Sequence to fold (1054 residues):
Amino acid sequence: MTAPNDKSAAMPAGAPGEGQAPKHFVSTAPFDPYSVEALTPEQERYYLAGQWKLMWWKLRRHRIAVISLWVLAILYLMAFLAEPISPYNPNSRHADHIYAPPQQVRFFHEGSFVGPFVYGLKYELNKDTLKREYTSDTTQVHRIRFFCTGEDYSFWGLFTADFHLICPAHGGTLFLLGTDRMGRDMFSRLLAGSRISLTIGFVGVAISFLLGIIIGGLAGYYGGWVDWSVQRTTEVIRSIPHLPLWMALAAALPVTWSPLLIYFGITIILGMIEWTGLARSVRSKLLSLREEDFATAAQLMGASPPRIIGRHLLPSFASHLIASATLAIPNMILGETALSFLGLGLRPPVTSWGVLLSEAQNINVVALYPWLLLPVLPVLITVLAFNFLGDGLRDAADPYK
Amino acid sequence: MISRRETLVSLAALAAAAGPSRLLAQTAGDTAKPPKLIETPMLEPLVKEGKLPPIAKRVPAAPSIVKLEGEKAPGQHGGDLRLLMSKDRDARFVAAYGYARLVCWAPEHELVPDIAEAVEVDEAQKTFTFRLRKGHRWSDGKPFTSEDFRFFWEDMYEHKELARFFGASQLLAGGEKPKVEFPDAQTVRYTWSQPNPHFLPWLASPVNLTIFRPAHYFKKFHAKYADKKRLEKLNDKRNDGWVRKIATENRQARYNLNPNMPTLDPWVPKTEGVAERYEFARNPFYHRIDTNGRQLPYADRAVMVLAESKIIPVKTGAGEVDLQARSIRFDDFPFLRRAADERGFDVRLWKTAKGAQLAIYPNLNCDDPVWKKLLRDVRFRQALSLAINRDEINKIMYVGLAEPGQNTVLSGSPLYKPELRQAHAQFDLVRANRLLDQVGLAKRGSDGQRLLPDGRELELIVEYPAEGTEYVDLMRLVGDTWAKAGLKMYSKAFQRVVLRRRIVSGQSMMSVWEGIDYALIRPGLSPQDFAPTDEAHAQWPRWGQNYQTRGRQGEKPDDPAARELLGLYEAWIEADSRDARRDIWAKVLAIWAEQVFTIGVVGGVLQPVVVDKQLRNVPKEGIYAYDPGSYFGLYKPDTFWFDRTTRVYRKYG
Fold:
């Protein structure tokens, strides 16, 4: 702790004059015994700030974490507003534009500025290679429309609307990231996929958190046989090979379940497996914290165990929990991606990044239609952003250090 | 195929010689005198060392002389024919490609004698006489004679302990076994009291379902011939060790998998046990030669390398193979075509002969009584078919190059009529909805989807084998248009074997499979796949089981149309002329078109065939079919040869 800088004005600073008896001085100011320790407004703000505020300040100084936070905020906003942002419905097929490459957005046509537009696509089947070939038709200038009306969609399944942020020109197309083997717009599919892929992390982590805190809390607080059995259970769960377990559980989910239920099924499966690590850290923290005086005090005052755990012990290391949660989310996202890639997780028609990637796993895509591999990019960005943010949070988690 | 007009080769000569009976004989074999034989370079050292007899003693006195004309030409010995397969059980495809049979299918849809020098068939198709080649030997040099047939017939097929392993229905005509005679070492005769038109096509099938086995090899394990002590070694807990041994050996003989067993195929397996790479070396006693006197096969070895089926297109594109069609699909064509010039191979597009690339099979024997009633209603099946947008599917999945239509006869067959393929195959939601309303599905739930007559939600569950994205894409496209007709569809993938079991047991209500195996129908080809005759038919497994087991299992067909098809099939067996068969076929196809027992989507999808630029004699255009055809077997891969004199530019390697 740095010592406060003593420049307090209340201290008499008079130096005795030469040969003069010091002049008797009586201060008329009211007596303030704390004047010595008074703080400047800045100091006051700093010293009296709560734990969360300090954490936030510290985090703000972590440049990469802040950038990551912005990136994630934008991604989540896009996921939330996926339907109005995307120009097409993610499942609508364009039979005339199968495997169309990304259309480049341009601003100048023949030397003059026209604003954002794309050239039309000219389709030709190559009779020799049987490849669908598309060329830009520079005679067709399709200006991108903004804040426009296009295909109908149902926003979060709540109401139907047709407002879009961007739309293709009337009679034109707008495939910013190309189309897939059924002529579906990849950009729209990527946005639709982000909703599932980004939220599966939260839901999964929430479940594993709940389980981890409750089970780990019980084990840490009570110790003894409760602790022992929880420890052995986590060991058993951790030693189960994940892949076969997922395969079995995925096979057990009935076909007639709606995609949404399957989605929850998968998150629950992921959450049920991931809680063990968290339970362990909660347990070890509680084991040390329950010996502290304030815990004993609360006990003596007759607080119930849930209250002691919830009100006294958990807040003492909540910041750690948040940091580890942030680091757990990318694992969940990767878990979903891997599961769906292997065909065990989500299945079409649900769209997630993992589903999009699993559809891209063949040699033709790599060799001929590389834009179908683009879903790798958002996965990469999201996972990195979460990791950087988690890093920043961990540094900020203990502001008193 | 087996009628006179189609198969007679040299009419005048045979009519005089054979009188009322017909003779299948090879064009080349009966005219040209054998050319001077040329020793095979690969075997020359062995001949010099005395380990092998010289070529003149290895080839039968009357070899099968293969004429290579047109785009084919006689070639040179040497080289390894490299193939890629995905599973070790696929080693059997080398036997299918080798395709040496008593009688073989020729590309013109006729049966020609191959291992047999000649086959005589009487007009009623009751008596079949095979004349073997003098001096023909097994791959170990032992003579191949009628003794090998006798052994199979008397000591295997008719043996009381072994009989249960040889229950092929094609050896029975009207439930009766044939009378088999062995007049001399080169003659075998099978006589039935009733016509058996399935006998020769069965012998010509891709699996080596022969009626003979190498007697000298099998006798080593046979209780009647081998000494007791040796046989006892084969026993474990039970005393029938030799019985099981013979059954196993026989199974291996069908697919030519056992390196120790003599064979008549062009290539002899050399790799024992399970491996990543299987080698097959030339059979020094093979019976076919070319017109220059070179013994076939041209390629010294056939080498089969295993790779994951998803990797096979990649490896093929990298030029690691000389001849490949398996595990390559139509949508791999652009990639392969692009790689072709750099890696020095050609990609050809062959026709497939399946009635439909994929077809939907409603299970008329499904358990659920409400569904069973619905699926048996022809209007419901027609409505399902009408609610499929085949043109869109063709455009999206096959760049518009396939033939949309039902799972039935393809153009190119003499029985083809456009209206057969197009019956109930236009996309017509209005008619589909009207038919669905009529069959008692007029009520709809809150989400606009139809309800079953008993009030349940209508949920069509379509099951398909978990193999590749083709099934998935198809079901998505079909599901979309079915939803527009108010039919909610779910699809689920299963392992092939599991799915088969689900269908036979009635758990599955609808499944997706490939269509009719061979739809370039000739009147002489059996209509067995159009009638409930086989448990493997996914639309009526229990009726087929009933026919196969002669009423012991399954259920009797109780649908009048299915019964009529069965009657027509039996009439086809009895029919004695090509015209009669043709009429029967026309009736079968008409019923099939009206009843929509299977719902075809598109047919005639092209099959990419990758051929190394140095490999000669592979046809530019061909038909890629399993039975009849044996895939490449129809075009005699033993005549494919490497022209090492033409230089091929390869960018890499």
Observations:
- The mean pLDDT of chain A is 82.
- The two ends of chain A are 9 Å apart (CA to CA).
- Chain A touches chain B through 24 residues (CB under 8 Å).
- The CA atoms of residues 105 and 118 of chain A lie 5 Å apart.
